[in-house]
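Researcher: Let's do a round of design. I'm pasting the structure tokens now; please hold your answer until I've finished.
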């Protein structure tokens, strides 16, 4: 239980630090947020828990391929906000487009014989 609480604490602290830094500097917040900290933490937690290098390899490939459709969020959200669409509606629509992008990417990869 202590291990899981440690994982949660570290992860939450990272998110809080990034949001606090972004209040002062969107550039620094963007740099911190763009570094794949969550992915790195997930790789570390997975390795510590399983010692299974193949799972690390598989997760790394999955993250690589799924970063591409995740970028849709960062294109759609600012476009909608610049058009003065309500923040929560913009975020919801950007998330929906991102989910659709994930589905398209996974379908395309499956057709190309790349299994995630």
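Researcher: That's everything. Go ahead.
Model: Designed sequence:
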């Amino acid at each position: 239980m202590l291990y899981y609480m440690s994982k949660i604490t570290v992860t939450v602290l990272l998110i809080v630090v990034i949001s606090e830094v972004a209040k002062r500097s969107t550039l620094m917040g963007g740099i911190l947020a763009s570094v794949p900290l969550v992915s790195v933490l997930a790789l570390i937690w997975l390795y510590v828990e399983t010692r299974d290098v193949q799972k690390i390899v598989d997760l790394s490939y999955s993250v690589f391929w799924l970063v591409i459709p995740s970028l849709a969020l960062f294109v759609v959200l600012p476009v909608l906000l610049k058009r003065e669409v309500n923040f929560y509606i913009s975020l919801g629509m950007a998330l929906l487009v991102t989910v659709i992008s994930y589905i398209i990417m996974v379908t395309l990869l499956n057709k190309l014989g790349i299994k995630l």
